[in-house]
Amino acid sequence: MLQKTQVNQDLIDYCYSGEEALQKLKTSQETYKFILIDFNMPVLSGPETTRRIRDLFGGRAQPKIVGLTAHTQKEELDKGVRAGMDYTLTKPLNYKDLISLLE
After folding, report:
1. CATH architecture under which domain 16-23+30-102 falls
2. Which end of the chain offers a freer environment for a tag, N or C, measured as fewer CB atoms within 10 Å?
């Protein structure tokens, strides 16, 4: 879906687990401004990865974190907010919703 946007593809990193995302954030020289994270990832869940990202950045400028989930129940969406997600989007992902958050 991101390939359809005008976002420079060279500025996008992909990770397949929360653990991989944390490792990349710890070792990268890049400044991440936006993280799209699935609630149900292998190894670490999206909410747990989000908590760890928030701890990792501490007092530094935090990236915007958007959680993606198939769940629509308020209790499930609230897990992301409590973990530190800025927004949650539900699947199937609406292209216009994602673009509005990127702008």
Report:
1. 3-Layer(aba) Sandwich (3.40)
2. C
